[in-house]
Amino acid sequence: MGFSKDNLKGVLLALLSSGFIGASFIIKKKGLRKAAAASGVRAGYGGYSYLLEPLWWVGFITMIVGEIANFVAYAFAPAVLVTPLGALSIIVSAVLAHFILKERLHRLGVLGCVMCISGSVIIVIHAPQEHSITSVLEIWSMATQPAFLLYVGSVIVLVFILVFHFVPQCGHTNVLVFTGICSLMGSLSVMSVKALGTALKLTFEGKNQLIYPETWFFMLVVATCVITQMNYLNKALDTFNTAVVSPIYYVMFTTLAIIASVIMFKDWDDQSGAAIISEICGFIVVLCGTIILHSTREFDRSSSFRGSYIPVSPSLSARLCNGNGELLKHEEENGSPSEEICLRRPELY
């Protein structure tokens, strides 16, 4: 099956998106650190002081630019092609974290990066063509089919269980809780973004889709899902190491988004068994790459998985950190990462 121009546009936009989103993780993390050091209230514990931190807003704007590129990419290419390319943001995040956040990337991590790139290439080569859609009503028909409604119902139930049962019990000790909420809501946001992007594309082509209430419904779903994701992603980034959050979020989010797309848009219906198997193999290679990349990153497992650190008082924290939120030189020379002392106290993308 030939590689269409629409697919090419989607790939290029997805690559651009990965670059911006990968960088946004690091910039926002720096902003969260500075805000927590200045206010004494961490975002992971309900604090919102990061909203007053300019660096966090720079990261937020960077992410928005990446998400806009990603949004447009979904209007040109199928989700099973665009979504897995998000693995490249993991590479960007890993490299920048190595140099900026001092979250060390070991040599074996290069293998993980290469595997992510190789798997992405395989997916691109064997990706299905975008289905021709002439109206948002066609997408609405896909969204209201029994199989997809069952998927949506399952996602909503799981999200409520995670938010009201697991977050209070183990949200700050198990990285899967916050990332699970983000990923589940993210799979719905991808489908809504795909629908909304297609509607806007058709509108710009002269086929006005804004006259249909379905278009505005998809817009509402996008806004709801994105706000929820942002809220809990901030919690995950502030509570756990970036080396933990980025790969796990990517794996869960991408897997769920592909499942949702296959159910709703039936991306694999017109593909041969060999092409589908190639895509799955490419995705598995990408997953393995992210696992290797994650396993070779240096992080404090006690704070990332067990959450066993003891909160310190604001007065003690003030003595350990200077006015810029950085560790005193003595602590830096001893190799203590800043978030281990400055951010070990309570304060939700």
TrEMBL record:
Transmembrane segments: 12-27, 55-76, 82-101, 108-128, 148-168, 175-196, 216-233, 245-265, 271-293
GO MF: magnesium ion transmembrane transporter activity
GO CC annotation: early endosome; plasma membrane
Mode of membrane association: Multi-pass membrane protein
Location(s) in or outside the cell: Cell membrane; Early endosome
SUPFAM superfamilies in the record: Multidrug resistance efflux transporter EmrE
Pfam family, one: Mg_trans_NIPA
InterPro entries associated with the record: EmrE-like (IPR037185), Mg_trans_NIPA (IPR008521)
Presence of keyword Membrane: yes
Keyword Cell membrane: yes
Record keywords: Cell membrane, Endosome, Ion transport, Magnesium, Membrane, Transmembrane, Transmembrane helix, Transport
Membership in a protein family: Belongs to the NIPA (TC 2.A.7) family.
Function: Acts as a Mg(2+) transporter. Can also transport other divalent cations such as Fe(2+), Sr(2+), Ba(2+), Mn(2+) and Co(2+) but to a much less extent than Mg(2+).
PANTHER family: MAGNESIUM TRANSPORTER-RELATED, PTHR12570
Quaternary assembly: Homodimer.
The protein's name in its UniProt record: Probable magnesium transporter
Organism this protein belongs to: Pyrus ussuriensis x Pyrus communis
